[in-house]
């Protein structure tokens, strides 16, 4: 059987999100087709071969000594996979399946390691991952294609140029959002409605990144488009986020207290076509492969603005990305099988 190494955890602020996604993927992968090798990465960056139950991952109890053996990725040599450090035994792998989110994993870092391991892996390559994770680079790339984005400027948490921020706010008006330059799941985002909130917002964001973007709040709503494939693409259904108040923060994304997801989105056929077209253009020209979810804002005036691109979107059975593809006839398990096939196809 094909040996799939599923990686979960990691040092990022989205560690817990990864655990939930990984547990869902592990439950859905067909063990008659695949031998699953579970590789857990702690928040300190230690790598382990985990042999316990999937429930232990979801509950963040997986790091018990009886379930874990320290491993390291094999770089160079004849073997492909991971080395058990205590015994020197190699865990051979056919495909790497990262179910990881956030910094050091979605930003091209771990993809670079995968390239050194010379193994097929699910998801975008190093360059596409790095650009998509960096909100400023994503917006610059989109603008070069004629795709409009939300007005924003890049700032630093150290020696912040307050005068530049004041000029931006004078032009665009409050409220604005402060977002980590490289981050996801809405971690570290602050909505600023008063200039007196700026210093506290900058201090809060410094726990997540050294740089951030200051972004104009859009008077409108958010939609998303899921894509599956390498050359031949499946464009999923467009969904829409309806908010009762505030913004789609971490709590709302994973608990859905007051927000709703409409699938399909309540937009015109022409707008659906435009969202799909722009999403496909970005996906292809950035060199994305495997999967991505591309999010936009639609303003009250009907203007389409790119928000962000997620190259490793949330992957529980209830996450937005799988549901977008479900509307196109893809089951959750079918998506996982296809992603493994696409990883091998891209490596071949």
Write the layout of secondary structure elements.
Layout: E1 2-9, H1 15-28, E2 34-41, E3 47-50, H2 54-58, E4 68-73, E5 81-84, E6 90-92, E7 95-98, H3 109-117, H4 126-133, H5 135-144, E8 152-156, H6 162-172, E9 176-180, E10 190-192, H7 198-205, E11 211-216, E12 220-229, E13 233-242, H8 250-255, E14 260-262, H9 269-286, E15 290-299, E16 304-310, H10 320-326, H11 332-347
Parallel strand pairs: 1-2, 1-7
Antiparallel strand pairs: 2-3, 3-4, 4-5, 5-6, 8-11, 9-10, 9-11, 12-13, 12-15, 13-14, 15-16
Quick tags:
348 residues, alpha+beta, Rossmann fold, D-amino Acid Aminotransferase, Chain A, domain 1, Dna Ligase, domain 1, 5-stranded antiparallel sheet, 32% helix, 28% strand, globular
Describe this entry's structure for a reader.
- The chain is built from 11 helices and 16 strands.
- The protein has helices at 15-28, 54-58, 109-117, 126-133, 135-144, 162-172, 198-205, 250-255, 269-286, 320-326, 332-347, and strands at residues 2-9, 34-41, 47-50, 68-73, 81-84, 90-92, 95-98, 152-156, 176-180, 190-192, 211-216, 220-229, 233-242, 260-262, 290-299, 304-310.
- Strand 2 (34-41) and strand 3 (47-50) form a beta hairpin.
- It is globular, with a radius of gyration of 20 Å.
Unreliable runs:
247-256
Question: Strand content of the residues, in percent?
Answer: 25-35%
Which CATH class of the largest domain is shown? Alpha Beta
Tell me the helix content: 25-40%
CATH architectural label of the largest domain: 2-Layer Sandwich
> What is the tally of helical segments?
11
Kindly report the spatial arrangement of strands forming the biggest sheet.
Answer: 6-5-4-3-2-1-7
């Amino acid at each position: 059987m094909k040996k799939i190494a599923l990686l979960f955890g990691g040092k990022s602020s989205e560690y817990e999100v990864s655990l939930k996604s990984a547990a869902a993927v592990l439950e859905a992968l067909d063990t008659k087709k695949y031998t699953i090798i579970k590789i857990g990465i702690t928040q300190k960056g230690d790598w382990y071969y985990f042999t316990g139950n999937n429930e232990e991952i979801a509950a963040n109890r997986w790091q018990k000594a009886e379930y874990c053996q320290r491993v390291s990725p094999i770089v160079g040599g004849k073997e492909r996979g991971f080395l058990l450090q205590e015994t020197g035994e190699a865990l051979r792998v056919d495909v790497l399946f990262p179910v990881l989110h956030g910094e050091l994993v979605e930003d091209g870092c771990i993809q670079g390691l995968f390239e050194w391991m010379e193994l097929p892996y699910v998801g975008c390559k190093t360059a596409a991952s790095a650009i998509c994770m960096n909100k400023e680079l994503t917006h610059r790339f989109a603008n070069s294609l004629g795709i409009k984005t939300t007005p924003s400027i890049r700032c630093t948490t150290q020696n912040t140029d307050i005068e530049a921020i004041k000029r931006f706010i004078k032009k665009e008006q409050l409220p604005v959002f402060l977002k980590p330059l490289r981050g996801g799941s809405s971690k570290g985002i602050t909505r600023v409605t008063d200039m007196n909130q700026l210093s506290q917002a900058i201090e809060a964001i410094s726990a997540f990144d050294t740089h951030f973007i200051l972004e104009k709040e859009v008077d409108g709503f958010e939609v998303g488009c899921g894509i599956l494939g390498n050359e031949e693409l499946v464009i999923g259904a467009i969904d829409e986020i309806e908010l009762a108040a505030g913004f789609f923060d971490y709590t709302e994304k994973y608990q859905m207290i007051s927000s709703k997801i409409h699938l399909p989105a309540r937009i015109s056929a022409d707008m659906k076509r435009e969202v799909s077209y722009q999403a496909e253009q970005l996906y292809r020209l950035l060199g994305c492969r495997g999967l991505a979810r591309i999010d936009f804002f639609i303003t009250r005036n009907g203007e389409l603005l790119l928000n962000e691109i997620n190259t490793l979107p949330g992957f529980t059975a209830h996450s937005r990305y799988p549901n977008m593809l479900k509307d196109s006839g893809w089951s959750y398990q079918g998506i996982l099988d296809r992603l493994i096939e696409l990883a091998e196809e891209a490596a071949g």
